[in-house]
Design a protein that fits this description.
By secondary structure, the protein is mainly alpha-helical. It has one domain. About 80% of the residues lie in helices and about 0% in strands. The longest helix is centred in the C-terminal third of the chain and has 32 residues.
């Protein structure tokens, strides 16, 4: 179990991440120019939400009440931010952006699930 200082630091990192993500998702104009290659924005959606899910699980996995609270926010944010973007004259709704975000979220969940199974398998074989 992590100590309280480390837990507090992870809390702060996740909250800052969440604020930055919500800010970038809801600003009238996109904060970055996504024109280096086709569908570059999908890659950034995948990485941003995948990274966010990693931070989220690292921060709240063992704290059930906060896990459910922030988990709900994480799962609503991709589609919610797309609907908010549809209200802006500079941005548009893209289901593919939301799907890329959810793909990042579920990829991290899958990787952590597989990692846990492998670690448990190794520990059981050592007995």
């Amino acid at each position: 179990m992590e100590n309280k200082k480390t837990t507090f630091i992870w809390d702060i990192i996740f909250i800052i991440y969440l604020i930055v993500l919500i800010y970038f998702a809801t600003t009238p104009k996109p904060p970055f120019n996504y024109s280096r290659f086709p569908n570059e924005d999908k890659m950034w959606h995948f990485l941003a939400y995948g990274g966010g899910m990693f931070l989220f699980l690292k921060t709240y996995f063992h704290r059930k009440i906060l896990l459910y609270l922030f988990g709900g926010i994480i799962f609503i944010l991709p589609i919610g931010s797309e609907y908010i973007q549809a209200l802006s004259p500079y941005r548009y709704f893209s289901m593919f952006d939301a799907l890329a975000s959810y793909a990042g979220i579920f990829t991290v969940i899958l990787i952590l699930f597989i990692h846990k199974k492998i670690v448990l398998s190794i520990l059981n074989n050592k007995k």
